[in-house]
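Ticket #4471: complex job returned nothing on first submit. Input attached below:
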Amino acid sequence: MHDQNFFEKVWWVAGQIPYGRVTSYGAIASFLSAGSAARMVGWAMNASHTSRIQIPAHRVVNRSGMLTGKHHFGHPDLMQQLLENEGISVVNDRIVDFKRLFWNPADHLVFPF
DNA sequence: TGATTGACCAACT
DNA sequence: CAGTTGGCCAATC
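Support reply: We reran it on our side without changes. The output follows.
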C-alpha cells in the first residue's frame, strides 16, 4: 500500500540509522518531504513504542546534538546509556563530536516511494 | 469542528 | 549571545 502513515515513514527512516551514528528530527523531516514539520518527527518518536518493530529512537536528537527526548525513555538517563553503549559520548545531555557522528538520511537513502 | 499541543527549526531582534 | 516569533501539521482534547 503506497499510502503509509506519516509515523511509519519516520519509523522506517529511523530504523535505517546505522549503529553508532545519529541524526536529527529536522534531517528526517526534510528527507521525507522538504516542507515537513520536524515537530511531527518528535511525535512519531513519542509514539515509536507502539510500533511492532523496535525503533532506535535514541539515535535521533535535535539539530544541536542535544538529547531533548531523554525524558520519554523509561529512565531519564536511559537514552544516554543506550548511546554510550554504541560508543557515543554524551556530556551534559549533548553528543560529543555530533558533527562527525551525524548521519544525514538524504546522503544515504532513497525514499522507496 | 475548532483549539491546543509538541522529543523542532530557521530567521529575526 | 539569549530570547522571541512564525511556520510546520498530525494527534489530541
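Strands of chain A lie at 23-24, 60-61, 90-91, 94-95. Closing as resolved unless it happens again.
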